[in-house]
Amino acid sequence: MSDDTPLDRVSSVSGSSSGVMPTIVYVLYLVAAVTGVPYLIGLIVAYVSRDGADEVAATHYQYQIRTFWLGLLYLVVGVLTTPIGIGFVICFFTWVWAIVRSFKGLVWYHEGVEVPNPKTLLW
Questions:
Q1: 116 in any annotated domain
Q2: Which of 52, 26, 53 is nearest to 108 (CA)?
Q3: Domain membership of residue 87 as a residue range
Q4: pLDDT by residue (tens digit) across 78-108?
């Protein structure tokens, strides 16, 4: 049994070879939920940083990359279905979905744990 406190785990994650890059990507995604701009920057950072990342960070990068591409797919479906009315609901769901995924990922990373299922389509 380990006596690590949550603060110790955050310090150990931040001091890993992956550093704070997953945190930066999650923050960029959360800012993008309001402004829309830094999503692409976050995707690029995740792609560049995933090579050589430790096991924990690697699952977070995979989760972040999938968040971007799935979010883009859901958004395109939402925009295409806007003329029939359901698109607004899909776009709103996509927005909430991206925020929840980013917050959950941020919490998992700062707890020092891997994403339980980085290939999931939902949360």
A1: no
A2: 26
A3: 6-111
A4: 999 999 999 999 999 999 999 999 999 999 9
